[in-house]
Structures are given as structure tokens and as C-alpha cells.
Automatic annotation (TrEMBL):
Domain Prephenate/arogenate dehydrogenase: 74-349
Coiled-coil stretches: none
Pfam families: PDH_N, TYRAAT1_C
Gene Ontology molecular-function annotations: arogenate dehydrogenase (NADP+) activity; NAD+ binding; prephenate dehydrogenase (NAD+) activity; prephenate dehydrogenase (NADP+) activity
Protein name: Prephenate/arogenate dehydrogenase domain-containing protein
Listed Gene3D superfamilies: NAD(P)-binding Rossmann-like Domain (3.40.50.720)
Record keywords: Oxidoreductase
């Protein structure tokens, strides 16, 4: 860095000249000889080198990146900092500020992760988060919403849920939240086990139940959804009603079969097949979830009971097929192969005519042969 300062020039009307400073990154050798004699012109000042320093480049790209991160960063408050809330926070923390509240004191764990923990929801809401994310159990959702101090939040706060059923929290949000609040119902269809290495390709279902028309509110919703899209999730937008219909046929059935096999006592063996390994993985993935979650899938999805009845009918149908085949085997062992004897007599009694048609012999001849 070259810093120049003007020398005083006597002229008819002397005026102080401003201090000039130039900064440019150059790589040129400096002359070792003495500098030339300064110009005597009254119109141009002479310069003297004060110091030489290396110019520091301005990282324009880094500056733009920081500005972009600040413009898209959200302050997210997680209500319910249990297993799933902690799982989500590890990804959210990459670009967003996180606050948390839970009935259990997770202060030490939250501080270790870099999350601000608040034991009192009043203190949490006074931080005015952009997004309030409900990561509670299905059974406790309504009781929680009845106790939250909404008056301490900004009037257009975005509320998001990540419950495994969708119509139930949607109706609760519309019932208890102030009308100015935005509502986004979501379901990350993965968990700490299935998404522990990557979220790429995993389905994320969402329904923009109520989002304001203001550009800032639309952008806030999009910034939240971008968290999952940038992680590679398969983004699926559908209504809460459609979600519950499909989830009853997939998620509820999956959890049911996993729990049935767990009750059955499925164990690994030295000769596991690929199919058997799949069943073991199913048990492993489902047994980590609480029974409250499974009960919530059954209780608060009106399609779950129908699926349970269909499973029961399918099991009974398979049993009938098995026992029906077994009945035929027992009958053959007890009474012999009567069907074979009948067919043998029929073939002996039939005669092949010249035109290729078959005809039964007269009954009289059969009686005579048998006499």
C-alpha cells in the first residue's frame, strides 16, 4: 500500500490541498536510486512516500454471502425439545438461530448444541421468534396450545407442526391460534434412525394452510421450506386430508406390523435372508418410537381403524387358505384318493369315435360288465 502526502507549494493564492491516499495491489520493483527532484509547477503538488504496506483485498463474494445468509436466516422457537426436536435442531443450526422450550429441562444439552433454552414459554415468546415449531406428542398438542402466551408474540408469527397426523393439528391451529398468525402443517416422513446420515430423497409433506399475502410472510414460509429442500428432501405438497388418507395406508400399517413382529419376538439368526433382514430393520425402526406416538396415529387419524380392520381380515383370509389346504391333506390321508378312482372308471367307460368326439357308453352295458 502506497500512501502519498502533498508538500506545501507557494503560489499566488495558496490553498490547502486535500490529503490523498491511494491503495492498489501491485507487484513492481522499487528503484534503488534517489527519487527525481519534485516538480516546481505551481499547479501540481509534489509527493513524498511515507510508507509501503501490502494491500488487503476486499472479499466481495464473502460479503455478499453473509448478507444473503442474514436475509434468509430465521429465528426458530422449538416447542418440545425431545428426541425429534433435537434431531431437527442439528440441521436447523447451520443457518438459523434456535430457541427451545420443553417440560423437561434440557438446558445443558441445548447449550451444548448452541440452542438457547427457556424453561418459561413467556420468556421464550418475548424473544419474538419468526417461527414457532411444535414438536410435541400428538396427545399433548391441544393442552399445550391452550397454555401458550400468544399475546407475547408478533401478530403475524408463523406456526408450524411436525406431527405424524395432519388434520388434527390443522383443526387445533385454526381453533386456538389468533387469526393473524400464519399456519404451515408439515410432516417430515423420516426420523433420527432413517435420517441419521442424510435427508436426501426422503419425503417431506407440507400444506400451506394459512399464509398472509405480504411478501415478507410468503418469503418467511419459503425460507423455512428451503431448509428441507436444500437437504435434498422430496418435497410433496398436499392437503392434510390427503396426507392422513395415504399415511394410514403406509405409516400406520408399517408401525402396526413392526409392533406385531416385536411382540412375536423376531430375532436374528446365522442364516438370515435379505427379506428377514428387512423385517428386523422394520422392528428396529419402529420400536424406538413411543407407544403414545403409535396410539396417536390410531386415535387421531380417522382412516387408521379401517386399515386395522383390513389387516385383521387379511390375516384371517390367509389362515382360511392355509387351514383349507390342510383339511384336504387330512381328508386324503383318512379316506384315500377317491377322486382318482372315479376318474379311472370314467376313462375306461369312454370310447373314442372316429370323428374325435367322446360319448358315454350305455348304462346297460356298464351294468352287464359289472355283473
Amino acid at each position: 500500500m502506497l500512501i502519498f502526502s502533498p508538500t506545501t507549494i507557494r503560489s499566488v493564492n495558496p490553498q490547502p490541498l486535500p490529503y490523498l491516499s491511494f491503495s492498489h495491489s501491485i507487484s513492481l520493483p522499487l528503484p534503488l536510486t534517489s527519487p527525481p527532484t519534485p516538480s516546481k509547477s505551481p499547479h501540481f503538488p509534489s509527493f513524498h512516500i511515507n510508507c509501503i504496506d501490502a494491500a488487503q483485498p476486499f472479499d466481495y463474494e464473502s460479503h455478499l454471502k453473509n448478507r444473503y445468509i442474514q436475509s434468509t436466516s430465521l429465528k426458530i422457537a422449538i416447542i418440545g425439545f425431545g428426541n425429534f426436536g433435537q434431531f431437527l435442531s442439528k440441521t436447523f443450526l447451520r443457518h438459523h438461530t434456535l430457541l427451545a422450550h420443553s417440560r423437561t429441562n434440557y438446558a445443558d444439552l441445548a447449550n451444548h448444541l448452541g440452542v438457547s433454552f427457556y424453561a418459561d414459554p413467556h420468556d421464550l415468546f418475548e424473544q419474538h421468534p419468526d417461527v414457532v415449531l411444535l414438536s410435541t406428542s400428538i396427545l399433548s398438542t391441544e393442552t399445550l396450545l391452550q397454555k401458550l402466551p400468544f399475546q407475547r408474540l408478533r401478530r403475524n408469527t408463523l406456526f408450524v407442526d411436525v406431527l405424524s397426523v395432519k388434520e388434527f393439528p390443522r383443526n387445533l391451529f385454526l381453533k386456538y391460534l389468533p387469526p393473524d398468525f400464519d399456519i404451515l402443517c408439515t410432516h417430515p416422513m423420516f426420523g433420527p434412525e432413517s435420517g441419521k446420515t442424510s435427508w436426501a430423497g426422503l419425503p417431506f409433506v407440507y400444506d400451506k394452510v394459512r399464509i398472509g399475502d405480504e411478501e415478507s410472510r410468503i418469503k418467511r414460509c419459503d425460507n423455512f421450506l428451503d431448509i428441507f429442500e436444500k437437504e435434498g428432501c422430496r418435497m410433496v405438497e398436499m392437503s392434510c386430508m390427503e396426507h392422513d388418507k395415504y399415511a394410514a395406508g403406509s405409516q400406520f400399517v408399517t408401525h402396526t406390523m413392526g409392533r406385531v413382529l416385536e411382540k412375536f419376538g423376531l430375532e436374528s439368526s446365522p442364516i438370515n435372508t435379505k427379506g428377514y433382514e428387512t423385517l428386523l430393520n422394520l422392528v428396529e425402526n419402529t420400536k424406538g418410537d413411543s407407544f403414545d406416538l403409535y396410539y396417536g396415529l390410531f386415535m387421531y387419524n380417522q382412516n387408521a381403524l379401517e386399515q386395522l380392520e383390513r389387516l385383521d381380515m387379511a390375516f384371517e383370509s390367509i389362515k382360511k387358505d392355509l387351514f383349507g389346504r390342510l383339511h384336504q391333506v387330512y381328508r386324503k390321508q383318512l379316506f384315500g384318493d377317491n377322486n382318482g378312482e372315479v376318474e379311472k372308471k370314467r376313462s375306461l367307460a369312454q370310447q373314442l369315435l372316429g370323428n374325435g368326439s367322446l360319448t358315454e357308453p350305455p348304462l346297460d352295458n356298464v351294468r352287464q360288465d359289472g355283473s
